[in-house]
Specification:
Two copies of one chain form a homodimer.
Chain A: E1 13-16, E2 19-20, E3 23-25, H1 29-33, E4 36-44, E5 47-48, H2 51-65, H3 72-83, E6 88-95, E7 112-118, H4 126-130, E8 132-141, H5 156-162, E9 170-177, E10 182-185, E11 189-194, E12 197-201, H6 211-222, E13 226-230, H7 234-237, E14 242-247, E15 251-258, E16 261-262, H8 268-275
Parallel strand pairs in A: 8-9, 8-15, 12-13
Antiparallel strand pairs in A: 1-2, 1-7, 4-5, 4-6, 6-7, 9-10, 11-12, 11-14, 14-15, 15-16
Amino acid sequence: MIPGLRLQATCKLNLINGIPQEQLHVADRGLQYGDGVFRTLRASSGKLIWWGDHYAKLAADARALGIACPVEEVLKPECLTVAQGQDCVVKVILTRGAGQRGYALPDPASPTRMVMSSALPDYPAAFVSQGIKVRWCSLKLGRQPRLAGIKHLNRLENVLARAEWSAPDIAEGLLLDEAGWVIGGVMSNFLFIRGKTLFTPDLSQCGVAGVTRERIMRLAQRQGMQVRITQMRPQDVFRADEVCVCNSLMGVLRVSMIDDRPCAEKGWAGKFRDGLNEDD
Amino acid sequence: MIPGLRLQATCKLNLINGIPQEQLHVADRGLQYGDGVFRTLRASSGKLIWWGDHYAKLAADARALGIACPVEEVLKPECLTVAQGQDCVVKVILTRGAGQRGYALPDPASPTRMVMSSALPDYPAAFVSQGIKVRWCSLKLGRQPRLAGIKHLNRLENVLARAEWSAPDIAEGLLLDEAGWVIGGVMSNFLFIRGKTLFTPDLSQCGVAGVTRERIMRLAQRQGMQVRITQMRPQDVFRADEVCVCNSLMGVLRVSMIDDRPCAEKGWAGKFRDGLNEDD
Protein backbone atom coordinates (compact mmCIF):
# COMPACT_ATOMS: atom_id res chain seq x y z
CA MET A 1 0.00 0.00 0.00
CA ILE A 2 1.33 3.42 -0.93
CA PRO A 3 1.95 5.64 2.15
CA GLY A 4 -1.08 7.67 3.03
CA LEU A 5 -3.16 5.97 0.39
CA ARG A 6 -6.83 5.92 1.31
CA LEU A 7 -9.37 4.18 -0.84
CA GLN A 8 -12.84 3.04 -0.17
CA ALA A 9 -13.40 -0.69 -0.43
CA THR A 10 -15.88 -0.72 -3.28
CA CYS A 11 -16.80 1.46 -6.20
CA LYS A 12 -19.07 4.41 -5.62
CA LEU A 13 -21.18 4.10 -8.73
CA ASN A 14 -21.24 1.41 -11.43
CA LEU A 15 -22.98 1.31 -14.76
CA ILE A 16 -23.08 -1.93 -16.73
CA ASN A 17 -24.21 -1.31 -20.29
CA GLY A 18 -25.64 1.96 -19.03
CA ILE A 19 -27.67 0.48 -16.19
CA PRO A 20 -26.78 1.18 -12.55
CA GLN A 21 -25.75 -2.20 -11.18
CA GLU A 22 -22.77 -3.80 -9.48
CA GLN A 23 -23.12 -7.39 -10.65
CA LEU A 24 -21.94 -9.09 -13.81
CA HIS A 25 -23.06 -12.45 -15.21
CA VAL A 26 -20.47 -15.15 -14.48
CA ALA A 27 -20.55 -16.27 -18.13
CA ASP A 28 -18.93 -12.97 -19.13
CA ARG A 29 -15.65 -13.64 -20.90
CA GLY A 30 -14.05 -10.81 -18.97
CA LEU A 31 -14.19 -13.14 -15.96
CA GLN A 32 -13.81 -16.46 -17.76
CA TYR A 33 -10.72 -15.53 -19.80
CA GLY A 34 -9.76 -11.92 -19.08
CA ASP A 35 -11.14 -11.28 -22.57
CA GLY A 36 -11.34 -7.50 -22.49
CA VAL A 37 -9.56 -4.18 -22.07
CA PHE A 38 -9.74 -1.33 -19.59
CA ARG A 39 -8.93 2.30 -18.85
CA THR A 40 -8.29 4.13 -15.60
CA LEU A 41 -8.68 7.89 -15.77
CA ARG A 42 -8.97 10.86 -13.49
CA ALA A 43 -12.00 13.05 -13.12
CA SER A 44 -11.53 16.56 -11.74
CA SER A 45 -14.73 18.25 -10.60
CA GLY A 46 -16.43 15.75 -12.88
CA LYS A 47 -14.31 16.67 -15.93
CA LEU A 48 -12.72 13.62 -17.56
CA ILE A 49 -9.02 14.41 -17.77
CA TRP A 50 -7.41 13.57 -21.16
CA TRP A 51 -10.66 11.97 -22.30
CA GLY A 52 -9.79 12.11 -26.00
CA ASP A 53 -6.57 10.17 -25.49
CA HIS A 54 -8.26 7.64 -23.22
CA TYR A 55 -11.09 6.99 -25.62
CA ALA A 56 -8.71 6.65 -28.58
CA LYS A 57 -6.58 4.15 -26.65
CA LEU A 58 -9.61 2.14 -25.51
CA ALA A 59 -10.83 1.95 -29.11
CA ALA A 60 -7.38 0.91 -30.37
CA ASP A 61 -6.98 -1.76 -27.70
CA ALA A 62 -10.49 -3.11 -28.34
CA ARG A 63 -9.76 -3.22 -32.09
CA ALA A 64 -6.55 -5.17 -31.42
CA LEU A 65 -8.61 -7.89 -29.72
CA GLY A 66 -11.50 -7.70 -32.18
CA ILE A 67 -13.96 -6.33 -29.63
CA ALA A 68 -16.46 -3.71 -30.82
CA CYS A 69 -15.90 -0.47 -28.90
CA PRO A 70 -18.94 1.59 -27.88
CA VAL A 71 -19.13 4.93 -29.66
CA GLU A 72 -17.88 7.95 -27.76
CA GLU A 73 -21.42 9.38 -27.67
CA VAL A 74 -22.46 6.42 -25.51
CA LEU A 75 -19.39 5.99 -23.35
CA LYS A 76 -18.52 9.57 -22.44
CA PRO A 77 -21.90 10.43 -20.89
CA GLU A 78 -21.69 7.26 -18.82
CA CYS A 79 -18.25 8.25 -17.55
CA LEU A 80 -19.56 11.70 -16.71
CA THR A 81 -22.50 10.14 -14.89
CA VAL A 82 -20.36 8.01 -12.59
CA ALA A 83 -17.95 10.92 -11.97
CA GLN A 84 -20.90 12.85 -10.51
CA GLY A 85 -19.10 16.19 -10.75
CA GLN A 86 -16.45 15.01 -8.31
CA ASP A 87 -12.70 14.42 -8.08
CA CYS A 88 -12.44 10.67 -8.50
CA VAL A 89 -11.10 7.74 -10.49
CA VAL A 90 -13.20 6.53 -13.42
CA LYS A 91 -12.49 3.01 -14.61
CA VAL A 92 -13.88 1.62 -17.86
CA ILE A 93 -13.85 -2.13 -18.53
CA LEU A 94 -14.89 -3.41 -21.95
CA THR A 95 -15.23 -7.19 -22.41
CA ARG A 96 -16.26 -9.43 -25.26
CA GLY A 97 -19.41 -10.15 -23.26
CA ALA A 98 -21.05 -13.40 -22.26
CA GLY A 99 -20.54 -16.51 -24.29
CA GLN A 100 -21.00 -20.24 -24.17
CA ARG A 101 -18.20 -22.23 -22.53
CA GLY A 102 -15.01 -22.48 -24.60
CA TYR A 103 -12.44 -20.19 -26.17
CA ALA A 104 -14.19 -19.81 -29.55
CA LEU A 105 -15.52 -16.29 -30.06
CA PRO A 106 -19.26 -15.87 -29.57
CA ASP A 107 -20.94 -15.02 -32.86
CA PRO A 108 -22.52 -12.57 -32.69
CA ALA A 109 -20.67 -11.12 -29.72
CA SER A 110 -22.42 -8.70 -27.41
CA PRO A 111 -19.69 -6.75 -25.57
CA THR A 112 -20.14 -5.63 -22.00
CA ARG A 113 -19.09 -2.14 -20.92
CA MET A 114 -18.62 -1.33 -17.26
CA VAL A 115 -18.05 2.22 -16.05
CA MET A 116 -17.29 2.73 -12.39
CA SER A 117 -16.02 5.45 -10.10
CA SER A 118 -13.95 5.25 -6.94
CA ALA A 119 -12.01 7.53 -4.62
CA LEU A 120 -8.79 9.07 -5.89
CA PRO A 121 -5.64 7.66 -4.30
CA ASP A 122 -4.42 10.19 -1.77
CA TYR A 123 -0.75 10.46 -2.69
CA PRO A 124 1.50 12.18 -0.15
CA ALA A 125 2.61 15.68 -1.16
CA ALA A 126 6.19 14.42 -0.82
CA PHE A 127 5.72 12.33 -3.95
CA VAL A 128 5.79 15.58 -5.91
CA SER A 129 8.22 17.58 -3.77
CA GLN A 130 10.79 14.85 -3.11
CA GLY A 131 10.16 12.13 -5.66
CA ILE A 132 9.40 8.48 -4.96
CA LYS A 133 11.38 5.42 -3.98
CA VAL A 134 10.99 2.39 -6.22
CA ARG A 135 12.46 -1.11 -6.44
CA TRP A 136 13.39 -3.62 -9.09
CA CYS A 137 10.92 -6.52 -9.17
CA SER A 138 12.22 -10.06 -9.46
CA LEU A 139 9.34 -11.18 -11.70
CA LYS A 140 10.37 -10.87 -15.35
CA LEU A 141 7.63 -10.05 -17.86
CA GLY A 142 6.96 -12.61 -20.55
CA ARG A 143 7.15 -11.43 -24.16
CA GLN A 144 3.99 -11.59 -26.27
CA PRO A 145 3.91 -9.16 -29.20
CA ARG A 146 0.25 -9.96 -29.91
CA LEU A 147 -0.73 -8.46 -26.54
CA ALA A 148 2.11 -5.98 -25.96
CA GLY A 149 1.09 -2.37 -25.38
CA ILE A 150 -2.57 -3.29 -24.87
CA LYS A 151 -4.20 -2.56 -21.52
CA HIS A 152 -6.04 -5.89 -21.37
CA LEU A 153 -7.54 -7.79 -18.46
CA ASN A 154 -4.78 -10.44 -18.23
CA ARG A 155 -2.85 -8.78 -15.44
CA LEU A 156 -1.56 -11.63 -13.28
CA GLU A 157 2.03 -10.58 -13.91
CA ASN A 158 1.25 -7.18 -12.41
CA VAL A 159 -0.51 -8.81 -9.45
CA LEU A 160 2.46 -11.10 -8.73
CA ALA A 161 4.95 -8.27 -9.13
CA ARG A 162 2.98 -5.96 -6.81
CA ALA A 163 2.88 -8.75 -4.22
CA GLU A 164 6.69 -8.74 -4.00
CA TRP A 165 6.84 -5.85 -1.54
CA SER A 166 4.82 -4.40 1.30
CA ALA A 167 7.23 -1.74 2.61
CA PRO A 168 5.10 1.41 2.78
CA ASP A 169 7.92 3.69 1.62
CA ILE A 170 8.21 1.92 -1.75
CA ALA A 171 5.75 3.57 -4.14
CA GLU A 172 6.31 1.47 -7.23
CA GLY A 173 8.15 -1.55 -8.64
CA LEU A 174 10.10 -1.58 -11.89
CA LEU A 175 9.87 -4.53 -14.26
CA LEU A 176 12.30 -6.05 -16.69
CA ASP A 177 11.27 -8.51 -19.36
CA GLU A 178 12.72 -12.00 -19.53
CA ALA A 179 15.45 -10.74 -21.85
CA GLY A 180 16.51 -8.18 -19.22
CA TRP A 181 15.17 -5.03 -20.90
CA VAL A 182 13.53 -2.37 -18.71
CA ILE A 183 9.81 -2.22 -19.52
CA GLY A 184 8.10 -0.04 -16.92
CA GLY A 185 6.43 0.14 -13.54
CA VAL A 186 3.85 -2.30 -12.18
CA MET A 187 1.17 0.41 -12.53
CA SER A 188 3.02 3.08 -14.50
CA ASN A 189 5.16 3.81 -17.52
CA PHE A 190 8.84 4.57 -17.28
CA LEU A 191 11.04 7.22 -18.85
CA PHE A 192 14.32 8.99 -18.29
CA ILE A 193 16.01 12.09 -19.60
CA ARG A 194 19.64 12.48 -20.57
CA GLY A 195 20.77 15.77 -22.05
CA LYS A 196 17.93 16.95 -24.28
CA THR A 197 16.66 13.44 -25.05
CA LEU A 198 13.68 11.63 -23.53
CA PHE A 199 14.12 7.84 -23.45
CA THR A 200 11.22 5.46 -22.88
CA PRO A 201 11.13 1.66 -23.28
CA ASP A 202 10.20 -0.13 -26.47
CA LEU A 203 6.86 -1.81 -25.62
CA SER A 204 6.58 -3.99 -28.73
CA GLN A 205 7.09 -7.23 -26.77
CA CYS A 206 5.35 -6.56 -23.45
CA GLY A 207 4.13 -3.79 -21.17
CA VAL A 208 1.27 -1.32 -21.49
CA ALA A 209 1.65 1.79 -23.63
CA GLY A 210 -0.14 4.33 -21.47
CA VAL A 211 -1.81 7.61 -22.30
CA THR A 212 0.36 9.72 -19.97
CA ARG A 213 3.57 8.38 -21.55
CA GLU A 214 2.13 9.28 -24.94
CA ARG A 215 1.28 12.80 -23.77
CA ILE A 216 4.75 13.31 -22.31
CA MET A 217 6.33 12.21 -25.60
CA ARG A 218 4.18 14.71 -27.50
CA LEU A 219 5.03 17.43 -24.99
CA ALA A 220 8.75 16.71 -25.25
CA GLN A 221 8.60 16.90 -29.02
CA ARG A 222 6.75 20.22 -28.89
CA GLN A 223 9.52 21.51 -26.64
CA GLY A 224 12.18 20.49 -29.16
CA MET A 225 13.46 17.45 -27.28
CA GLN A 226 14.51 14.26 -29.00
CA VAL A 227 12.27 11.31 -28.10
CA ARG A 228 13.74 7.83 -28.29
CA ILE A 229 11.63 4.70 -27.85
CA THR A 230 14.31 2.14 -27.28
CA GLN A 231 15.48 -0.99 -25.53
CA MET A 232 17.26 -0.11 -22.29
CA ARG A 233 19.20 -1.94 -19.58
CA PRO A 234 19.08 -1.13 -15.84
CA GLN A 235 22.61 0.32 -16.04
CA ASP A 236 21.42 2.82 -18.69
CA VAL A 237 18.89 4.15 -16.19
CA PHE A 238 21.55 5.20 -13.71
CA ARG A 239 23.31 7.34 -16.31
CA ALA A 240 20.17 9.48 -16.66
CA ASP A 241 19.83 13.12 -15.59
CA GLU A 242 16.42 12.26 -14.18
CA VAL A 243 14.19 9.18 -14.01
CA CYS A 244 10.38 9.36 -13.93
CA VAL A 245 7.31 7.16 -13.81
CA CYS A 246 3.88 8.26 -14.96
CA ASN A 247 0.25 7.27 -15.20
CA SER A 248 -3.11 8.99 -15.45
CA LEU A 249 -3.65 9.16 -11.71
CA MET A 250 -0.22 10.14 -10.40
CA GLY A 251 0.77 12.22 -13.43
CA VAL A 252 4.59 12.39 -13.67
CA LEU A 253 6.69 11.63 -10.61
CA ARG A 254 10.44 11.78 -10.27
CA VAL A 255 12.17 8.63 -9.04
CA SER A 256 14.55 9.59 -6.25
CA MET A 257 15.84 6.10 -5.37
CA ILE A 258 15.86 2.69 -7.03
CA ASP A 259 16.44 0.23 -4.19
CA ASP A 260 19.43 1.79 -2.40
CA ARG A 261 20.73 3.77 -5.36
CA PRO A 262 19.87 7.47 -5.64
CA CYS A 263 18.86 8.96 -8.99
CA ALA A 264 19.89 12.41 -10.22
CA GLU A 265 17.49 15.37 -10.28
CA LYS A 266 17.28 18.07 -12.94
CA GLY A 267 13.73 19.36 -12.55
CA TRP A 268 12.25 17.53 -15.53
CA ALA A 269 9.30 15.95 -13.71
CA GLY A 270 8.06 19.39 -12.68
CA LYS A 271 8.41 20.73 -16.25
CA PHE A 272 6.47 17.79 -17.62
CA ARG A 273 3.76 18.19 -14.98
CA ASP A 274 3.37 21.85 -15.91
CA GLY A 275 3.04 21.03 -19.61
CA LEU A 276 0.98 17.85 -19.48
CA ASN A 277 -2.40 19.52 -19.76
CA GLU A 278 -1.42 21.94 -22.52
CA ASP A 279 -3.01 20.22 -25.52
CA ASP A 280 -5.93 18.80 -23.61
CA MET B 1 -16.91 -24.48 -33.51
CA ILE B 2 -16.26 -28.23 -33.38
CA PRO B 3 -18.48 -30.17 -35.84
CA GLY B 4 -21.66 -31.31 -34.23
CA LEU B 5 -20.92 -29.40 -31.06
CA ARG B 6 -24.07 -28.32 -29.27
CA LEU B 7 -23.93 -26.20 -26.18
CA GLN B 8 -26.51 -24.15 -24.43
CA ALA B 9 -25.74 -20.45 -24.25
CA THR B 10 -25.56 -20.09 -20.49
CA CYS B 11 -24.80 -22.26 -17.53
CA LYS B 12 -27.53 -24.45 -16.14
CA LEU B 13 -26.82 -23.95 -12.47
CA ASN B 14 -24.38 -21.62 -10.73
CA LEU B 15 -23.32 -21.41 -7.13
CA ILE B 16 -21.25 -18.45 -5.95
CA ASN B 17 -19.79 -19.13 -2.52
CA GLY B 18 -22.45 -21.77 -2.15
CA ILE B 19 -25.41 -19.56 -3.01
CA PRO B 20 -27.42 -20.10 -6.21
CA GLN B 21 -26.78 -16.97 -8.25
CA GLU B 22 -25.45 -16.00 -11.66
CA GLN B 23 -24.00 -12.57 -10.92
CA LEU B 24 -20.63 -11.57 -9.57
CA HIS B 25 -19.61 -8.19 -8.12
CA VAL B 26 -17.62 -6.16 -10.66
CA ALA B 27 -14.95 -5.43 -8.05
CA ASP B 28 -13.97 -9.11 -8.07
CA ARG B 29 -10.33 -9.46 -9.05
CA GLY B 30 -11.22 -12.40 -11.27
CA LEU B 31 -12.76 -9.82 -13.62
CA GLN B 32 -10.45 -6.90 -12.88
CA TYR B 33 -7.16 -8.78 -13.37
CA GLY B 34 -7.88 -12.42 -14.17
CA ASP B 35 -6.66 -13.03 -10.62
CA GLY B 36 -7.81 -16.61 -10.18
CA VAL B 37 -7.68 -20.22 -11.35
CA PHE B 38 -10.18 -22.68 -12.76
CA ARG B 39 -11.03 -26.31 -13.48
CA THR B 40 -13.23 -27.90 -16.12
CA LEU B 41 -14.33 -31.43 -15.37
CA ARG B 42 -16.82 -33.99 -16.54
CA ALA B 43 -19.74 -35.30 -14.55
CA SER B 44 -21.21 -38.67 -15.52
CA SER B 45 -24.64 -39.38 -14.04
CA GLY B 46 -23.65 -36.78 -11.48
CA LYS B 47 -20.35 -38.48 -10.58
CA LEU B 48 -17.39 -36.12 -10.75
CA ILE B 49 -14.87 -37.83 -13.01
CA TRP B 50 -11.26 -37.76 -11.70
CA TRP B 51 -12.34 -35.52 -8.83
CA GLY B 52 -9.29 -36.23 -6.69
CA ASP B 53 -6.90 -35.13 -9.42
CA HIS B 54 -8.96 -32.04 -10.20
CA TYR B 55 -9.17 -30.95 -6.59
CA ALA B 56 -5.44 -31.51 -6.06
CA LYS B 57 -4.62 -29.45 -9.17
CA LEU B 58 -6.99 -26.64 -8.17
CA ALA B 59 -5.37 -26.50 -4.74
CA ALA B 60 -1.86 -26.51 -6.22
CA ASP B 61 -2.72 -23.76 -8.72
CA ALA B 62 -4.37 -21.65 -6.03
CA ARG B 63 -1.33 -22.09 -3.79
CA ALA B 64 0.95 -20.96 -6.63
CA LEU B 65 -0.96 -17.66 -6.76
CA GLY B 66 -1.34 -17.36 -2.98
CA ILE B 67 -5.13 -17.80 -3.06
CA ALA B 68 -6.73 -19.81 -0.25
CA CYS B 69 -8.43 -22.88 -1.71
CA PRO B 70 -11.75 -24.00 -0.21
CA VAL B 71 -11.52 -27.34 1.55
CA GLU B 72 -12.69 -30.36 -0.38
CA GLU B 73 -15.57 -30.85 2.07
CA VAL B 74 -17.01 -27.52 0.91
CA LEU B 75 -16.21 -27.66 -2.79
CA LYS B 76 -17.12 -31.24 -3.68
CA PRO B 77 -20.73 -31.06 -2.44
CA GLU B 78 -21.19 -27.85 -4.43
CA CYS B 79 -19.89 -29.55 -7.58
CA LEU B 80 -22.24 -32.48 -6.96
CA THR B 81 -25.10 -30.04 -6.47
CA VAL B 82 -24.63 -28.31 -9.81
CA ALA B 83 -24.10 -31.64 -11.59
CA GLN B 84 -27.62 -32.63 -10.48
CA GLY B 85 -27.06 -36.31 -11.20
CA GLN B 86 -26.56 -35.60 -14.89
CA ASP B 87 -23.96 -35.95 -17.63
CA CYS B 88 -22.56 -32.45 -17.86
CA VAL B 89 -19.54 -30.16 -17.61
CA VAL B 90 -18.72 -28.77 -14.16
CA LYS B 91 -16.54 -25.67 -14.12
CA VAL B 92 -14.98 -24.30 -10.94
CA ILE B 93 -13.56 -20.77 -10.85
CA LEU B 94 -11.66 -19.61 -7.78
CA THR B 95 -10.65 -15.95 -7.58
CA ARG B 96 -8.86 -13.80 -5.02
CA GLY B 97 -12.24 -12.12 -4.44
CA ALA B 98 -13.25 -8.48 -4.40
CA GLY B 99 -10.74 -5.80 -3.56
CA GLN B 100 -10.21 -2.09 -3.71
CA ARG B 101 -8.86 -0.72 -7.01
CA GLY B 102 -5.19 -1.49 -7.65
CA TYR B 103 -2.93 -4.51 -8.00
CA ALA B 104 -1.96 -4.76 -4.30
CA LEU B 105 -3.42 -7.87 -2.70
CA PRO B 106 -6.46 -7.28 -0.50
CA ASP B 107 -5.61 -8.01 3.13
CA PRO B 108 -7.45 -9.95 4.32
CA ALA B 109 -8.52 -11.53 1.04
CA SER B 110 -11.90 -13.17 0.76
CA PRO B 111 -11.73 -15.56 -2.21
CA THR B 112 -14.74 -16.17 -4.43
CA ARG B 113 -15.61 -19.68 -5.57
CA MET B 114 -17.94 -20.22 -8.49
CA VAL B 115 -19.24 -23.65 -9.41
CA MET B 116 -21.31 -23.97 -12.55
CA SER B 117 -22.65 -26.69 -14.80
CA SER B 118 -23.27 -26.68 -18.53
CA ALA B 119 -24.07 -29.14 -21.31
CA LEU B 120 -21.36 -31.56 -22.41
CA PRO B 121 -19.88 -30.85 -25.82
CA ASP B 122 -21.35 -33.35 -28.24
CA TYR B 123 -18.26 -34.60 -30.03
CA PRO B 124 -18.84 -36.58 -33.23
CA ALA B 125 -18.26 -40.33 -32.89
CA ALA B 126 -15.68 -39.98 -35.67
CA PHE B 127 -13.37 -38.16 -33.26
CA VAL B 128 -12.83 -41.50 -31.56
CA SER B 129 -13.07 -43.81 -34.55
CA GLN B 130 -11.04 -41.77 -37.06
CA GLY B 131 -9.09 -39.24 -35.00
CA ILE B 132 -9.17 -35.47 -35.39
CA LYS B 133 -7.68 -32.92 -37.75
CA VAL B 134 -5.70 -30.13 -36.15
CA ARG B 135 -3.65 -27.16 -37.33
CA TRP B 136 -0.57 -25.23 -36.26
CA CYS B 137 -1.52 -21.83 -34.82
CA SER B 138 0.47 -18.79 -35.85
CA LEU B 139 0.26 -17.22 -32.38
CA LYS B 140 3.35 -18.13 -30.35
CA LEU B 141 2.91 -18.48 -26.59
CA GLY B 142 4.92 -16.11 -24.42
CA ARG B 143 7.16 -17.66 -21.78
CA GLN B 144 6.42 -16.91 -18.12
CA PRO B 145 7.74 -19.52 -15.69
CA ARG B 146 5.86 -17.91 -12.78
CA LEU B 147 2.53 -18.77 -14.45
CA ALA B 148 3.50 -21.82 -16.54
CA GLY B 149 1.50 -24.97 -15.91
CA ILE B 150 -1.16 -23.11 -13.91
CA LYS B 151 -4.74 -23.07 -15.19
CA HIS B 152 -5.28 -19.40 -14.40
CA LEU B 153 -7.80 -16.90 -15.72
CA ASN B 154 -5.37 -15.01 -18.00
CA ARG B 155 -6.33 -16.81 -21.18
CA LEU B 156 -6.15 -14.19 -23.92
CA GLU B 157 -3.50 -16.16 -25.78
CA ASN B 158 -5.90 -19.10 -26.01
CA VAL B 159 -8.71 -16.79 -27.15
CA LEU B 160 -6.56 -15.25 -29.91
CA ALA B 161 -5.25 -18.65 -31.02
CA ARG B 162 -8.76 -20.15 -31.17
CA ALA B 163 -9.89 -17.19 -33.29
CA GLU B 164 -7.38 -18.13 -35.99
CA TRP B 165 -9.66 -20.70 -37.62
CA SER B 166 -13.34 -21.30 -38.18
CA ALA B 167 -13.20 -24.35 -40.50
CA PRO B 168 -15.59 -26.83 -38.88
CA ASP B 169 -13.42 -29.85 -39.70
CA ILE B 170 -10.51 -28.54 -37.60
CA ALA B 171 -11.03 -29.75 -34.03
CA GLU B 172 -8.02 -28.18 -32.35
CA GLY B 173 -5.04 -25.86 -32.86
CA LEU B 174 -1.49 -26.65 -31.78
CA LEU B 175 0.67 -24.01 -30.19
CA LEU B 176 4.40 -23.38 -30.19
CA ASP B 177 6.08 -21.02 -27.78
CA GLU B 178 8.07 -18.05 -29.00
CA ALA B 179 11.22 -20.19 -29.00
CA GLY B 180 9.56 -22.64 -31.38
CA TRP B 181 8.95 -25.51 -28.92
CA VAL B 182 5.67 -27.43 -29.17
CA ILE B 183 3.59 -26.72 -26.05
CA GLY B 184 0.11 -28.14 -26.60
CA GLY B 185 -3.38 -27.55 -27.95
CA VAL B 186 -5.47 -24.43 -27.43
CA MET B 187 -7.78 -26.38 -25.10
CA SER B 188 -5.84 -29.62 -24.65
CA ASN B 189 -2.50 -31.16 -23.80
CA PHE B 190 -0.30 -32.80 -26.37
CA LEU B 191 1.63 -36.06 -26.43
CA PHE B 192 3.10 -38.53 -28.87
CA ILE B 193 4.38 -42.07 -28.72
CA ARG B 194 7.46 -43.44 -30.42
CA GLY B 195 8.43 -47.05 -29.76
CA LYS B 196 7.63 -47.70 -26.11
CA THR B 197 8.15 -44.07 -25.03
CA LEU B 198 5.52 -41.43 -24.33
CA PHE B 199 6.72 -37.89 -25.08
CA THR B 200 4.90 -34.80 -23.78
CA PRO B 201 6.07 -31.16 -23.79
CA ASP B 202 8.02 -29.53 -21.01
CA LEU B 203 5.56 -26.98 -19.57
CA SER B 204 7.97 -25.13 -17.31
CA GLN B 205 7.83 -21.94 -19.41
CA CYS B 206 4.21 -21.82 -20.61
CA GLY B 207 1.13 -23.95 -21.19
CA VAL B 208 -1.26 -25.65 -18.78
CA ALA B 209 -0.32 -28.95 -17.15
CA GLY B 210 -3.67 -30.73 -17.29
CA VAL B 211 -5.09 -33.54 -15.23
CA THR B 212 -5.68 -35.88 -18.18
CA ARG B 213 -2.04 -35.57 -19.31
CA GLU B 214 -0.99 -36.40 -15.76
CA ARG B 215 -3.25 -39.45 -15.70
CA ILE B 216 -1.93 -40.68 -19.06
CA MET B 217 1.64 -40.35 -17.81
CA ARG B 218 0.81 -42.40 -14.73
CA LEU B 219 -0.97 -44.99 -16.86
CA ALA B 220 1.97 -45.25 -19.24
CA GLN B 221 4.37 -45.78 -16.35
CA ARG B 222 2.14 -48.49 -14.88
CA GLN B 223 2.25 -50.21 -18.26
CA GLY B 224 6.04 -50.15 -18.29
CA MET B 225 6.45 -47.37 -20.86
CA GLN B 226 9.13 -44.72 -20.61
CA VAL B 227 7.70 -41.24 -20.07
CA ARG B 228 9.72 -38.27 -21.26
CA ILE B 229 8.72 -34.67 -20.47
CA THR B 230 10.85 -32.83 -22.95
CA GLN B 231 11.27 -29.93 -25.34
CA MET B 232 10.11 -30.88 -28.81
CA ARG B 233 10.10 -29.35 -32.28
CA PRO B 234 7.31 -29.75 -34.87
CA GLN B 235 9.54 -32.04 -36.95
CA ASP B 236 9.85 -34.40 -33.97
CA VAL B 237 6.07 -34.80 -33.95
CA PHE B 238 5.99 -36.23 -37.46
CA ARG B 239 8.44 -38.98 -36.52
CA ALA B 240 5.95 -40.30 -33.94
CA ASP B 241 4.09 -43.61 -34.14
CA GLU B 242 0.96 -41.79 -32.95
CA VAL B 243 0.08 -38.25 -31.91
CA CYS B 244 -2.67 -37.46 -29.38
CA VAL B 245 -4.34 -34.55 -27.62
CA CYS B 246 -6.23 -34.87 -24.36
CA ASN B 247 -8.35 -33.04 -21.84
CA SER B 248 -10.95 -33.86 -19.22
CA LEU B 249 -13.89 -33.52 -21.59
CA MET B 250 -12.63 -35.20 -24.77
CA GLY B 251 -10.42 -37.75 -23.00
CA VAL B 252 -7.64 -38.89 -25.39
CA LEU B 253 -8.05 -38.40 -29.11
CA ARG B 254 -5.70 -39.44 -31.87
CA VAL B 255 -4.53 -36.72 -34.24
CA SER B 256 -4.98 -37.95 -37.80
CA MET B 257 -3.80 -34.84 -39.65
CA ILE B 258 -1.83 -31.72 -38.79
CA ASP B 259 -2.72 -29.22 -41.50
CA ASP B 260 -2.22 -31.29 -44.66
CA ARG B 261 0.16 -33.80 -43.16
CA PRO B 262 -1.15 -37.18 -42.02
CA CYS B 263 0.02 -38.73 -38.74
CA ALA B 264 0.69 -42.42 -38.18
CA GLU B 265 -1.68 -44.67 -36.23
CA LYS B 266 -0.72 -47.48 -33.85
CA GLY B 267 -3.78 -47.80 -31.63
CA TRP B 268 -2.33 -45.96 -28.63
CA ALA B 269 -5.22 -43.52 -28.14
CA GLY B 270 -7.64 -46.42 -27.72
CA LYS B 271 -5.33 -48.14 -25.22
CA PHE B 272 -5.02 -44.96 -23.18
CA ARG B 273 -8.78 -44.41 -23.25
CA ASP B 274 -9.35 -47.92 -21.94
CA GLY B 275 -6.90 -47.43 -19.09
CA LEU B 276 -7.63 -43.83 -18.12
CA ASN B 277 -10.23 -44.61 -15.49
CA GLU B 278 -8.30 -47.47 -13.87
CA ASP B 279 -6.97 -45.69 -10.78
CA ASP B 280 -9.92 -43.39 -10.34
